[in-house]
Specification:
It is a single chain. With about 90 residues, the protein is an alpha+beta fold. The mean pLDDT is about 95. Helix content is about 60%, strand content about 15%. About 0% of the residues are buried. The chain folds into two domains: about 40 residues, YefM-like domain (YefM-like fold, 3-Layer(aba) Sandwich); about 30 residues. Strands 1-2-3 form a three-stranded mixed sheet.
């Protein structure tokens, strides 16, 4: 993993993209000395997306199972809004 400033990234964009795409390197982009973004390979991006999808699916299954175990009773929308501080 390397860190580059936004100026360095712009100046050497093609080289940085090649490092990520062909060598699988992770590049953290800094602005004002702080990490603000990351360049990752398409393979890593696709893996991250799959992991997020799997986590969402697990959460949905847990919510569904909890709903079914509670007898299928839901929470009235008005109660949800009230508890969330919405009108």
């Amino acid at each position: 993993m390397i860190r580059v400033s936004t100026a360095e990234l712009r100046k050497h964009l093609s080289d940085n993209l090649s490092r990520v795409a062909y060598r699988g390197e992770l590049i953290l982009v800094q602005k004002n000395g702080k990490d603000t973004a990351a360049l990752i390979s398409i393979e890593d991006a696709e893996l991250l997306e799959r992991l997020e999808d799997e986590a969402d699916l697990r959460a949905a299954r847990r919510a569904r199972n909890l709903h079914l175990r509670s007898g299928g009773k839901g929470i009235p929308w008005e109660q949800v809004k009230r508890e969330a501080g919405l009108k």
